[in-house]
Amino acid sequence: MVKKNTCVFISGQGTNLRNLIFHSRDNSFPVKISLVITNKKEAHGINFAKKFKIPYVFIDTTFNNYDNKILLYLKKYKISFICLAGFMKVISKNIINKYQGKIINIHPSLLPKFKGLNTFSRMLKNKEKKAGCTVHFVNAKLDSGNVIIKKNFNINNRDTEITLKNKTQKLEYRAFPEAIIRIFRNI
Ligand code: GAR
Q1: How many CA atoms are closer than 13 Å to the CA of 111, on its beta-carbon side?
Q2: What predicted TM-score, i.e. pTM, was given to this entire model?
């Protein structure tokens, strides 16, 4: 199987990146992580790129032409698929147009509920019964593209923002690779 050259975008811990790297080492997994892009120099996730000898690059997304820089790197590494794994910056239309239907994002809520930031505190405030994660295609609107997979769990009255985050991330580690397999099985 020819694996798709994939770039993972991160801003923080990179535990989803680590999980995707782990899955990509399986011959039957459809993607190869060929590049990691971060917009935070101090992102802990960079360590996973280093550890597994994956090229990585820091792009300062506060500069105007940052998306052209990103596109140059994507070209250089022949990237045909992009995973946003905790990338805390809205992707520019320029990149979305060039990678139409080829960018997916993982979000820590059951979309369309709780788009954007601070999902767990808003869920608790709203007395939600269920939490979970969603993997979806990225379009020009925030957290609004077609859903590929969702996974949920019941919230109990002892849950806090921290327990919700931990439980959600456990589901994310199953949902992200499953979504990728689903996409490429259908092509
Ligand atoms: C993940 O839980 C992901 O759902 C969330 O950031 C976390 C990154 O964790 N993404 C968003 O909130 C995007 N709006 P990680 O860096 O350990 O993979």
Answers
A1: 23
A2: 0.97
Task: Please state which CATH number belongs to domain 106-187.
Answer: 3.40.50.170
CATH 3.40.50.170 residue spans of the chain: 1-100, 106-187
Alpha carbons 15 and 172: distance in angstroms, whole number: 10
Kindly report the CATH number that applies to the domain delimited by 1-100. 3.40.50.170
Question: Would you call 136 a catalytic residue per the annotation?
Answer: no
**Tens of pLDDT, residue by residue, the chain (187 residues):** 899 999 999 999 999 999 999 999 999 999 999 999 999 999 999 999 999 999 999 999 999 899 999 999 999 999 999 999 999 999 999 999 999 999 999 999 999 999 999 999 999 999 999 999 999 999 999 999 999 999 999 999 999 999 999 999 999 999 999 999 999 986 6
Which residue among 110, 111, 169, 174 is best mutated to probe the pocket of ligand 1, counting the most ligand atoms within 8 A of its Cβ? 169
